[in-house]
Design a protein that fits this description.
Radius of gyration: 22 Å
Number of helices: 14
Strand order of the largest sheet: 6-5-4-7-8
Order of helices and strands: HHEHHEEEEEHEHHEHEEEHHHEHEHH
Structural class: alpha/beta
Largest sheet: 5 strands, mixed
Helix content: 25-40%
Shape: globular
C-alpha cells in the first residue's frame, strides 16, 4: 500500500479476473472502478480493472440494462473518436441502513454513488422483536415515498444494534438495551419484514464506517470511534477497514472496568465504564433528580441552562474517559480518537474539553497532525449511514475498501 493510500487519499487497486466463472466478481470490480472515479469509458475501465475490453463491454451493457449505470455521452480528448462515458446511475438501485436503539430508529437511504437520498429519525416506544421489524419497514416506505422511489429499488439493507452479540453473563448496559431479543435471529426476522437480505452489524463499528465515509474520518484511515449510543462502544478503523473481531464483538469497551482519574474505583459489573460514561448513566442521574425519560434532543437546553446534574455527569464521565482514551491509544495507536453518537454536539465538545489534561500515551507527540480527540461530524445518523454504506459495499465492492472517495465526500447531506 502506498503512503497516499494509508492516508486515505486514493482508492485501493482492485483487480478483475478474466475467467467466465468469476463474472460476478468482475461486475463488482467494474462498478467499483466507475464508482470511485466518477465516470469513464470502456477502454479506461478495462485498463484500471485489468479485465479484457470485450469482458468490460459485456458487463457494461448488462449494468446499463439493469439500471445501475447511465451513459453520459462522449468525452472529447485528443484525436480520434471520443469515448462514451459511463457513470453510476443516481436514480438507480438504493441501499438502506437502520440503527435500532432502545428509544429510536434512524434510517438512511443511499444511491449507488454513496449519496444520501433520504434519512429520518423516529421515536421508538417499544424495541421488542414483535414491534421493531414492522416499524423499520414503515420507515423505509416513508423514505422511499419522500424521494418518489418504489420499494423494489432497494437492493441491500444493513441494520445496526447495540452489542455484544450472543454473550451470556454480561450484566452491564448493552444486553438490556433491546429487551426480548435474546435467542431471536435478528437477521432473519428483519429480512422477512423488509423483503431483502439484511446484514447485522455492531452499532459502534457501523458508526466508525459512517464517520469514515461521511464525517471527520474522510481523510483519516486509522482512527477509533467512541460511540455514545445508550451504552458505550468502540469502532476501530485500521487502514480504512473496520476491525470486527471473530464474532462481531470487537470494541465492546463499555463492558471494561476502569479506574477513574479521580475518585474511588468500582469493580465487577457495577464498575463497567458505561455505568458512568454513557447516555444511560446520564439518564439515570437525571431520573434520580426527578426528570425521567429525557431524550437526546432535550439535553441541549439543559446544557445551555448549565444544569448541575448534567455538569456533574460531564465531570464524572471525563474522569473515566481520560484514562480510556490513553488505553485506546496505547492499544491501537490511532491517528485520533473520535467522539460521536447520540449526545448533542455541544455536550460532546464539553466532554472532550473536560478530558484535559489527558494522560501520557503513545499518542503524546508534539508533531501531531490531528488532536488526540476530536468530535464526529455525522451526528445521530452516523450508525445508520455506516449500515447503509456497508450494505452498499457488500453489493458493489469485490472487497471492503473504504478508501476516500470524492464522490462520497461530495454527497454529504
Amino acid at each position: 500500500m502506498t503512503s497516499s493510500e494509508k492516508q486515505g487519499r486514493g482508492p485501493r487497486l482492485v483487480i478483475g479476473s478474466n475467467p467466465e466463472r468469476n463474472r460476478a466478481h468482475n461486475r463488482r470490480v467494474v462498478l467499483e472502478v466507475i464508482r470511485t472515479h466518477g465516470h469513464m469509458g470502456r477502454t479506461e475501465i478495462a485498463r484500471r480493472a485489468r479485465i479484457t475490453p470485450q469482458a468490460v463491454a459485456n458487463i457494461v451493457e448488462e449494468l446499463l440494462g439493469e439500471g445501475m449505470l447511465v451513459q453520459l455521452g462522449r468525452l472529447r480528448s485528443g484525436r480520434g473518436q471520443p469515448p462514451i462515458q459511463f457513470a453510476i446511475n443516481p436514480d438507480g438501485p438504493l441501499t438502506g441502513g437502520v440503527e435500532i436503539a432502545a428509544d429510536h430508529i434512524a434510517t438512511t437511504l443511499l444511491d449507488l454513488s454513496g449519496a444520501v437520498r433520504a434519512q429520518a429519525i423516529a421515536p421508538l416506544e417499544s424495541a421488542t422483536p414483535d414491534q421493531v421489524p414492522g416499524r423499520v419497514s414503515d420507515e423505509i416506505d416513508k423514505l422511499c415515498s419522500q424521494i418518489g422511489a418504489s420499494r423494489d429499488r432497494l437492493i441491500g439493507f444493513g441494520a445496526v444494534m447495540p452489542g455484544p452479540f450472543e454473550i451470556e453473563g454480561m450484566s452491564s448496559v448493552g444486553p438490556a438495551t433491546l429487551p426480548g431479543w435474546k435467542g431471536i435471529d435478528a437477521k432473519a426476522t428483519l429480512s422477512r419484514a423488509i423483503g431483502q437480505p439484511v446484514s447485522i452489524e455492531n452499532d459502534a463499528t457501523a458508526a466508525a464506517v459512517g464517520e469514515r465515509l461521511y464525517g471527520a474520518g474522510r481523510q483519516i484511515s486509522n482512527f477509533c470511534f467512541l460511540y455514545f449510543g445508550v451504552g458505550l462502544g468502540l469502532g476501530v478503523l485500521k487502514d480504512g477497514v473496520p476491525l470486527r473481531g471473530a464474532f462481531g464483538n470487537a470494541g465492546e469497551i463499555g463492558h471494561v472496568a476502569l479506574v477513574p482519574r479521580h475518585g474511588v474505583p468500582s469493580y465487577g459489573p457495577d464498575g463497567a465504564l458505561e455505568r458512568f460514561a454513557s447516555l444511560y448513566a446520564l439518564r439515570e442521574k437525571l431520573a434520580a433528580s426527578g426528570r425521567p425519560n429525557i431524550d437526546s434532543e432535550t439535553l441541549e437546553p439543559l446544557f445551555a441552562n448549565n444544569d448541575p446534574v448534567l455538569v456533574d455527569w460531564i465531570r464524572e464521565a471525563a474522569d473515566y474517559l481520560a484514562p480510556t482514551v490513553a488505553m485506546i491509544e496505547n492499544i491501537f495507536d490511532p491517528e485520533t480518537v473520535v467522539f460521536g453518537g447520540n449526545l448533542p454536539d455541544v455536550i460532546l465538545d464539553a466532554l472532550i474539553a473536560a478530558l484535559e489534561p489527558l494522560p501520557v500515551s503513545v499518542s503524546t507527540r508534539s508533531e501531531r497532525t490531528q488532536p488526540r480527540v476530536i468530535r464526529g461530524q455525522t451526528g445521530r445518523f452516523t450508525a445508520a449511514l455506516g449500515a447503509a454504506a456497508l450494505a452498499l459495499h457488500n453489493i458493489l465492492s469485490p472487497q471492503l475498501s473504504l478508501e476516500y472517495s470524492p464522490a462520497v465526500a461530495a454527497a454529504r447531506p
